[in-house]
Amino acid sequence: MNETMEHPIEWDCSCLQKKCGACAMIINGRPGLACDTLLSDCGGEISLEPLRKFPVVQDLMVDRDVMMRNLRQMEVWLETERAVDETGAGVVYEASRCLQCGLCLEVCPNFFPDGEFSGAASMVPASRLFTGEKKGERELKKNYKKKVYEGCAKALSCRDICPADIPIEDLLIRSNAAAVWKRRKR
Hints:
This protein is mainly α and 186 residues long. The protein has helices at 65-74, 86-96, 103-107, 120-129, 138-149, 157-161, 168-185; strands at residues 24-27, 30-33, 48-49, 56-58, 61-62. The strands form two sheets. A three-stranded antiparallel β-sheet has the order 2-1-3. A two-stranded antiparallel ribbon has the order 4-5. The mean pLDDT is 86.
């Protein structure tokens, strides 16, 4: 009898409830969350692969630091407190549901880890801040135009793969209007 000890497969997981996005991987050729995939829906055999657009750390674990780097470059944070009015509350809520899992980037034909375009993983958090014309958004708008607007071909594959069902197309339209189109009118 040949008894060899295989190392356990390394993969990320955290919540097991489709809330954190850590378990994103390719399951039977399609990007998805392991915690949201029923084995009964996979058929007889199951193939698991790491996401392809991120550096592999080990086995199914990938390094998604490029998403955080893009958020830092876009400066997607508030410098001061901001109250959200009723008209922007829905947008802020929808955008806050983003898991930062990276599935949107995995299927995006325009995203490359070393490219300028940062994809829906940056656009969605930026859309939370475009709920009204506020002082101090000039840099965010400039970064948005460079890192999102100029690179997005609107393939919307991100919309179809999002495990949180975020209305990415609606957020993209609103963000483009706030960051790019209104700016040209001035």
